Structure formats: structure tokens, C-alpha cells
Amino acid sequence: MTPPKHEHHPAPPTAADPWAALRVHTPARIALGRSGASLPTRELLAFGIAHAQARDAVHAVLDVPALRADLAGFGLPVIEVRSAAPNRAAYLARPDWGRRLDPASAATLACPAATPDLVFVIADGLSAVAVQRHAAPLLAIGLPMLDDLVIGPLVIASQARVALADAVAMALGARLVVSLIGERPGLSAPDSLGAYLTHAPQPGTTDAERNCLSNIRPDGLGYAAAAAELVALIRRARAAGISGIGLSAATALAAVG
Amino acid sequence: MSYRTSIGVRSHVFDSLAELLAKASPFRAGDALAGVAAVSAEERMAARVLLADLPLRAFLDEALIPYEQDEVTRLIVDSHDTTAFAPVASLTVGAFRDWLLSPQADTAALAALAPGLTPEMAAAVSKLMRNQDLILAARKIHVVTAFRSTIGLPGRLAIRLQPNHPADDPRGILASTLDGLLYGAGDACIGINPASDDPAKLRALWELLDQLIARHGIPTQSCVLAHVTRQIEAIEHGAPVDLLFQSVGGSEALNRSFGVSLALLREARDAGLSLQRGTAGQHVMYFETGQGAALSANAHHGLDQQTCEARAYAVCRAFAPLLVNSVVGFIGPEYLYDGKQIIRAGLEDHFCGKLLGLPMGVDVCYTNHAEADQDDMDNLLVLLGAAGVNFVMGVPGADDVMLGYQSTSFHDALALRETLGLRHAPEFEAWLHDQQLIDGHGRLRAPGSLPALPLADSIEALGR
After folding, report:
1. Which of B178, B257, B399 to mutate to test binding with chain A, by most A CBs within 10 Å of its CB?
2. Cα separations in angstroms, A101 against A96, A124, A166, B43
3. Number of domains in chain B
4. Of A125, A239, B60, B256, most Cβ neighbours within 10 A?
5. Please, how many CA atoms are within 13 Å of residue A235, restricted to the half-sphere of its CB?
6. What CATH number does the domain located at A64-240 have?
7. Residue A15: per-residue pLDDT
8. Is B81 a member of any domain?
9. Does B396 contact A30 at a Cβ distance shorter than 8 Å?
10. Do the chains contact at A32 and B397, CB–CB below 8 Å?
11. A119: helix, coil or strand?
12. Does residue B420 lie in a domain region?
């Protein structure tokens, strides 16, 4: 079902607000009309669809075989890890578990023969939908722009928070790590991808030491623009030997968790 | 000091007052995350049994965060009013609950008692109270404040109109503001969470709201919820600032993480008072708080999140605020996991704030990764309405497109007014009537019968 949109479904005259023309000024849900004190059925359902999509995105399970297939063409080894959160409920209640590798996963990670300059961790975060849709198209544009660097294996991480990438990077001996991770779904978009860059991650690295690109999706920050910004960040972080607020106050944002 | 009791064959020992309070708390995710929650339901009841027998005075003898380390503790201890405390000075926490629910604890007695209570006493008794108790006790407490409108009178409900826009676009903000005003919202304040921290952009928002309020003679107050230092600077540069906003918490360390101190808040209030912009009163401060903030900043000192939250109210009450609200479901499921925990926390925060003498509102809200939905928010909203909440938020369609969470809508406010017969703030009610937006019963007129949108031309006039 297609979500009802204001432009396509004008309110019936009896329930309409006469200031509907103001909608051009804001994405906010204004001039919804009313049924008595309450929302008209049309708007109740439109909100319900947006919330349902957000909820489904939070609880979606990352389809790892499909993601592997999407990543197969990049010519890099692909490995899978899990966090210490055993399931979604535990993941949501215990962000500390989502930041730690589960012991079995930690044991499978070993330093590659050539020390990587950069590792990508592709993590479900709070929206597996975002990762499933946008991680491979972003890498398809970004990786060729980085062909002078030694790129480590592509690491698929399940039940993962941003900081899980720190543990992965340390195990692989990488100086720089980028976590491509599903952001908390909002009502306007259930599939926003975030990219968090961290230089020289250590245990206890804080969110202030990361740089973030947010809202990566075709209707937000598009793939080409996101790839260009991310590559520029990577090069600046390598040159300066730091990431986070110290690298650029303008791009350092609080991490998802 | 340790506390011990037995239930059946098992004995339970609690090594400190902080542990006793934490383990007496109804279960919530943040206390489990902090490792301070009771490990079993029976241990929780053992803690409550011991807490019920604890004299209220115990909280005057033992500081949960040391006096020497924490200016919030010093504020609590140094401002405690022993004369006001006298009527309950001999009670245990359990007897205090009985007293609060008795007819003896009427509106006048509760108002007189507030300066005699510490946040820890309020937190402690709330842990023994069911949701029903939290409602019954809170509804007896009336905390009335005023700036251009008067908020907190019995039988009335005010709304903070929250017209946020992801890029602070003036026309977008005006469009949402007009939507809210036409729905009869905005009597608590018109408060914008700015996306940008740029002083020039912030200044434009203050000017915009000031001109709108002046142009239409709206009896309300504006607020731009930037960091308090930005607001003080704006006043120094001549900006038309009504309310000064700041997020605050219950420990010096948490406030430091917010970039504030008691001295800075004092400076902010003085700056606000210097402008003398209120007409009905001079309450110039607006504070927001929320359970879990202390743990998220690692500033909880081993306390449970509800006790930390109550301590934040000690900070608020030192500055005679117009509005205080707990942003109860904003922080996420690692602190309040689901609708049940959010509802409980909302009622606790409202009760504890009111008991300590604060003009409490609640941002009835949730995020999409919490196990909650609109039905849970409907429940909490009606419960808070029954408890006499001073104000709640009004967000277009309940969907805040800047902050990315769901709060209460203008429609929700209409529904609550209709369900419980709650009226607007009196000055605002008169204005709505003058604008022909409400009828003689305070009900919003049918959209079709509105005269030709007296406010809509402001978009073009002010939205440049």
C-alpha cells in the first residue's frame, strides 16, 4: 500500500482546515483537519503507516546472505561478526552489549597479512532496512575513489552499535574505521543510513572522537554526495591523524549509541 | 549503614541508603543498565518494606552524593526549610504516604510543606506509591505561575506550542505556529528547538516570535531552546527574550555535561528578569529534565534514575520557573523500555515535581525504538490530565520533524480538554474568544465557521 500523501489526497471539505495552503512551508503535519477533537481517519492511517514502517525497520533482521551477495562484486573478503547482544530485545535494552563483540566473533578476527589503512563495518544498527538498501550502492561509488589505500575486509556486523567497529578495527589492526549503520528510524524515513568515521579507535573511544554523515538515502544525502563527503573526511582524517571534534567541529555529531 | 529484613526464609541486606532506594524502584531498563536494580521481585519488595519504616529524617542525616563533592547536594541541604518540614518531621516514609493520601494533606498543607521536603524524600515516598496514589496526591497540589499567561490554575491545561522545523525556516516555523494557534494551542509558551546554534539564526527566531506575539496581542511567551549561554548573549545584544530555557539534572557532574552550573543559571535568571517583559507575572525560567540523563552522562553516582531525576527538581525550584517538564520518553528504551515504564516514570516525575513545588508539565513522548505507541501516549496523557498536569506539548500531528520523535499533538490537547473539561489559561482563553476561535464553552469552533484566518497573513509579513 502506498502511504497517503497530502498532495494526492485532499481532505474532504467537511473536515478540511482552510489553511491547508501553508503546508508548502514545512514537512510538519499541519492542517490535518479534524473529526471532532480527533484526527480524521485518513490522517490516523497515514501516521499509522509511517509508524509501522519505522517499527518494522527497527525489528527487521539483517539478511546477511543477501548483503554478502550485494558486496561480492567489490573484490574484498567479506566476514561476519555479531555483538554480545543475543537478540533484538537485548540489543535495544543494553547498548553496552551492542558495542562489544561476542567472544566467538572476536576469535575469528585476525590481522590480515597487509595492515589495512581502512576497514568498513556494515552494521544493522537501528535499521537493517537502511543497511540492506544503501550500504552497497554507497560503497560502489566510494571504494573506487579509495583505490590508493589498503582496504581491509568488509565486515558485516549484526546487533551492532557504532562502537562495535572500534573492536573490529583493533582486531584487524586498522588505523581508520568507517561504520555504515542504520540510524534510528523516524516517521519521515525508516531507512536513513549513517556513516561514522573513527581514527585510531581504542577501548573507551568517545562519540566526540568520531565524525558522522547522517541521513544517507536517495531522498536525503544521495549516494554520490555522501561518497564524496565520506572520502574527503577519510583523507582529512588520515592527513591530520585524528577524527571527531578535533578534525571538524561542523561534522562531529553525537553517535547513535 | 546497612538495612536488613527477612521475607520467609530469605534475608535481604542493603548496604546503603542509595542501594535501598534503587532496589525499591519499580523495574526500569536504565536501573538494570546501571546495575542498581533489584535482582528479584522479592528483593524489590524487601527494599520497599525497609523503606516504609525509614524515618524521613534519615534523608537529612545522610547525603546520597557527598556535600563536599556536589553543588546540587549543597543546594538541597542549605535550602532545606526545617519549619516547613515540621508537620511531617516525625513520620516514616510509609506513614508519609498515608499522610499524603489523607484529607489532612490538602492544597494549603501541601503548598506549605514543599520547601520542607528534599528530593530524596519525594523520590522515596513515590517508590511506595501506585500510579493511582501518584495521581491522587498530585491533583491536590496547585502550582500557579505567570508571565503573560497564568498557568497551573485548577481545571485548566496549557500547551507548549512546539513548531520545530529541520532547517529553522521562518515560514515553516510560522506555518506550524499558526496551525497550533488555530487549534487553540500555545498558552504555556511558543517554544522552538533550534536546529542551528548560530547566533544570527537564533536572533531571527526570537524576533519572529516577538513580532508575531506583538502583532496579534497573543497572551503567551516565546522561548528559543538554545544553550543558556546563547540566550544570555542574546539578551546582552538586545534580543527580545521572554523565557530562558535550560536542560538540567540532579548532580553537579550532569549539569557540567550540559555546560551549566547553578551560578550560570542564576546569571540567566537575572538577565531574564532585567527585561521585565512579563505582564501577568515574572517567572522567566523554563527547565527540562528526564530520567536516564544522569546515567547517560555517567554522572549518576550509583543512584537510581528516578532519584537522580527528583534531585533535578531541587535545581529547578531554586530559580522560580514558569515551566518545568520531564521529557519522559525521549531518551530511549535503554532507560525506559516500553509504554509501561514510560507511563510510570511520567506519573512519578509529575508527582515528585509538584510535591517539591514545581509547575510541572510532561512531554508525553516516545521514540520508534521504544516498545510504545500512540495508545500508550493516550493513556499517559489522560492519567496526567487526571493528575492535574500544568501543561503538555503541542506538536503538529504528534510528529516532531526536527527532533525525530513523537510527542502529543494539538489534536491530543483538544481530546484531553474534551475528555476532562479542561480550559485554557485564562488570558489565552479570552484571546481565543476575541479571535472567534473558540465558542462560549471554550470549544474550538468548526473550521468551516472560522472568519478569514486573521493570522495567516503573518506568514508573508513576518516570514522573510
Report:
1. B399
2. 10, 14, 10, 32
3. 1
4. A125
5. 12
6. 3.40.50.11240
7. 58
8. no
9. yes
10. yes
11. strand
12. yes
For residues B189-212, give the mean pLDDT: 94
Give the one of B178, B333, B373 whose C-beta lies nearest to A92's C-beta: B333
* DSSP-assigned letters across all residues of A14-58: TT--TTGGGGGG-SS------BTTB--HHHHHHHHHHHHHHHHHH
Cell triple for B380 = 499517559
**pLDDT, position B449:** 56
Residues B125-141, mean pLDDT to the nearest whole number: 98
Q: Which residues of chain A have pLDDT under 50?
A: 1, 11, 13-14, 249-257
Model confidence band, residue B140 (pLDDT cutoffs 50, 70, 90): very high
Contacts for A218 with CB less than 8 Å, ≥ 6 apart: none
Label residues B210-232 b or e (16+ Cβ within 10 Å = b).
bebbeeeebbbbbbbbbbbebbb
pLDDT, tens digit, 9 for 90 and up, residues B54-86: 999 999 999 999 999 999 999 999 999 999 999
In chain B, what residues touch A15 (CB-CB under 8 Å)? 447
Q: Mean pLDDT in chain B?
A: 95
- Chain A residue with the nearest C-alpha to that of B369: A58
All cell numbers assigned to A41: 481517519
Contacts of B245 (CB under 8 A, 6+ apart): B191, B223, B224, B225, B226, B228, B231, B285, B286, B287, B288
- pLDDT grade for B451, boundaries at 50, 70 and 90: low
Task: Categorize the per-residue pLDDT at B330 as very low, low, confident or very high, splitting at 50, 70 and 90.
Answer: very high
Judge whether A154 and A120 are in contact, CB under 8 Å. yes
Average pLDDT, rounded, for chain A: 89
Q: Break chain A into its structural domains and give their ranges.
A: 64-240
Q: Structural domain of residue B307, as residue ranges? A: 145-449
CA dist B167 and A159 (Å) reads 32
Distance of CA B265 to the CA centre of its chain: 17
Does B41 fall in a domain?
A: no
Let me know the angle formed at the C-alpha of B435 by B430 and B437, rounded to the nearest 5 degrees.
Answer: 90
Whether the CB of A186 is below 8 Å from some CB of chain B: the reply is: yes
The structure's pTM equals 0.92
Instruction: Nearest chain A residue to B455 by CA: give it.
Output: A19
A9 Cβ under 8 Å from any chain B Cβ: no
* pLDDT computed for residue A13 by the predictor: 44
Q: Which of A30, A55, A257 is opposite residue B179, by nearest beta carbon?
A: A30
Query: What percentage of chain A exceeds 90 in pLDDT?
Result: 77
CB contact (8 A) between residue B337 and residue A23? no
* CA distances (Å), origin A59, targets A55, A83, A182: 6, 16, 12
ipTM entry? 0.95
Strand order in the sheet with A193-199: A78-82, A154-158, A118-123, A176-182, A193-199, A210-216
Amino acid at B445: R
Residue A163 C-alpha cell reads as 562502537
Average of per-residue pLDDT across B277-297: 96
Whether B156 is in a domain gets the answer yes
pLDDT at B453: 56
